[in-house]
Amino acid sequence: MASKSFYAVVAGVGSGTGRSVALRFAQSYPVVLLARKPESYSDIASEINKQGGQAFGITADTSDPQSVTAAFEAIKKKLPDKKLAAAIYNVGAGFAIKPFLEVNVSDLDASLNSNVRGLFNFAQSTLPLLLSSATTHTPVYPPTLIITGATASIRGSARFGTFAAGKFAVRGLGQSLAREFGPQGVHVAHVIIDGVIDTPRTKAWEVNGGVEGGKLDPDAIAESYWHLHTQPRSSFTQELDLRPYVEKF
Amino acid sequence: MASKSFYAVVAGVGSGTGRSVALRFAQSYPVVLLARKPESYSDIASEINKQGGQAFGITADTSDPQSVTAAFEAIKKKLPDKKLAAAIYNVGAGFAIKPFLEVNVSDLDASLNSNVRGLFNFAQSTLPLLLSSATTHTPVYPPTLIITGATASIRGSARFGTFAAGKFAVRGLGQSLAREFGPQGVHVAHVIIDGVIDTPRTKAWEVNGGVEGGKLDPDAIAESYWHLHTQPRSSFTQELDLRPYVEKF
Amino acid sequence: MASKSFYAVVAGVGSGTGRSVALRFAQSYPVVLLARKPESYSDIASEINKQGGQAFGITADTSDPQSVTAAFEAIKKKLPDKKLAAAIYNVGAGFAIKPFLEVNVSDLDASLNSNVRGLFNFAQSTLPLLLSSATTHTPVYPPTLIITGATASIRGSARFGTFAAGKFAVRGLGQSLAREFGPQGVHVAHVIIDGVIDTPRTKAWEVNGGVEGGKLDPDAIAESYWHLHTQPRSSFTQELDLRPYVEKF
Amino acid sequence: MASKSFYAVVAGVGSGTGRSVALRFAQSYPVVLLARKPESYSDIASEINKQGGQAFGITADTSDPQSVTAAFEAIKKKLPDKKLAAAIYNVGAGFAIKPFLEVNVSDLDASLNSNVRGLFNFAQSTLPLLLSSATTHTPVYPPTLIITGATASIRGSARFGTFAAGKFAVRGLGQSLAREFGPQGVHVAHVIIDGVIDTPRTKAWEVNGGVEGGKLDPDAIAESYWHLHTQPRSSFTQELDLRPYVEKF
I want to staple B214 with a disulfide (CB 3.0 to 4.6 A). Which of B208, B219, C163, D166 is the partner? Predict the structure, then answer.
């Protein structure tokens, strides 16, 4: 099976989308989990390994170029013979909803760092590997970089300025990467998650009247990420949105 | 199996997307094929029936309200106990690329009729059925209306005015339907097909330098339509694009 | 003064944008007013003529090609020596806000006719004249076609399906015309009017909490149309939005 | 004349848009010019003062919060009795067109700093002043913040990734500011300049076949900025595009 020769890497795992994506991709690939703190990835790695998959975590801060470089050196040592099939960028803190005159430049920097600087560093490390997979190997599916976006990727709402700055920037960079690397066989896709994700952290939130399905099921998000990965190069999606059926948009 | 109680209908079958979508959905549902001429659907119906699926065609002109009403009355007679799981609107002629001062109002009408008037009629007939499936039955997947769009759905290029008029209109109507029927449990999605589809008709066309994968494989398009259909209501996609990896955009 | 040799035509005059645009352009040009009923234009023509401008009305239904052709033949007889400087398409009825299953195809047709078919006919008659002005004469400002859009031009809201269909179509056609005729020196611009216009008909409407400036002042809209007309060809705007400062968007 | 009580500030003056905007607004207001180097503003200030206007420059790096704060303290000392009528953010270096794997994180930072961090700092200093003008004084026109964008504000082209990141971010932040401060009476507008501006630096560039009007005349850009400033609050434009008539888009 081709998947034995390939692996996936997910940056930004925790209790929501990142965890579900890791579990979904682990059905086909060994999965490397990146997070700033071991407690964000250790349970997920255990869960995957227990289910017969293969996973390990690396502590890394994607906003720091050195940290990302070090992470990929560590991956190379751990998986010397494997090629990268899929890279998912799911980092994105810096979510401050405040009147503009109450935020300060460090809020902006937090958003830019975790969103666009992080994607930049992650893409610098993963795209050479994805290109190599595309050109010199025979992956089952085209090598893929998937980027998690949000409502704020396409809409700058009042009091979301610093978050929108980071998310718009990610979308712009992602589009540029899609246009540069698509013709080289690497699929770059951007997913606009428009709603609240159903995670332990949001369990108590009353969203969309509390109806079932009113929050995004992260496993469903992961299924769409997997679908993106399986698209053949004759039919790439660059962008799709995902939202609960009752979400206003 | 739930699919025994449900069926799918595809309007606009021929040699490309419509055929592939019909074949894909026929793996799970009986499929009804609508086209203006029997020669457009008869081979596809035979192919599906030979493969152990179930399909039949009905001659209908979606731009004509009476014709669409009659088609769904005929479906009801043929499949009295089945509920509608998925409706795909894939009609869209009226593709005249001409300097604006050389087109005439009949070119515009041809585009509006096959694109937006047809969708209107098809949606008037299918949405009550999809709503009924959503609320009183237990479909495996949320009932779905999928609409085929094109580059001209989001871009009015020079000399594509009448085609863009029809395609923009379809997108506007589709968005409106998504916002009205999504909260009622019916998934309405719009797919922007941005490139030339690989069909017998386009076989000889030199597209994107003639590279493999330079045209959209209709089977790959169909796979994305199927993915849309399978999305649970906590995670609906309203719009996605599909294009060959080498396509400029 | 160059304006003595040129005229402007406004399709769709009544009590709002059309009237204000006519008055504004009448400061520089003789203005021809098109409307389906004389009562829509007669007062405006009188008002302009009383103020020392020059204006007359022609009864025409822009959705009917023959009617539009006849109108421009009548204009030619009335203004045999004048060239067209600016054409404004401000027609757009078909505004039915209803649940989709309560509208019927005649609602759709009403929207398509007054919006996109009307623009098509108007553009077929005016673009040859605007091109002629651009290439063989020396207008003060580049010959201009300005099209009135609405919120529904870029957003298909629930229960606005037929209206959105017409408005999206207009936007698609307008973009296409801009891309084809811009390089030939004709400026085609689309204006998204996002809010309620302050007219006698809307006087009693409580909009945006009833605050002053909560509805669009049609004279302010007209000022932006005039600005578009005065843009030199090195710096054309294709699209702008206009909304009250308190409007949610 | 009300303008005696008000002033305008332009960040990012040099030989193109910033200079023309300063000259245009100087017809009505004293103008403060911000640039990182005195040679960028000194000639413009002289030119305005010679023509009977009033202008002075302040050396400031908008990407540095302290530098911006200091600049506005200096303005307050120089113009203690004047209120801010208009603030224009026209900074935006970081324009590196390179294959993604040849750029590094300092290219990204340069783009983010000059584009979105600079706008953030500038907006933090100017919005309180604009708000004060809107609420406690009677400006002739609604107080205005105008932001210069580019093609890369809405399109991430191949090899433009770092520039697009900065420009998308600016657009997202600008939208957010428009939605927060519009209802408070401050007009925030974003201008997409889609083409090459005709400046001494670009004089030799062969653009659009070298035709006259193939580059954007910065004086024409300035005229549109002025139009935005004069819009009454019943009719604000949030975004418009500007491009040469022959520009492909």
Answer: B208
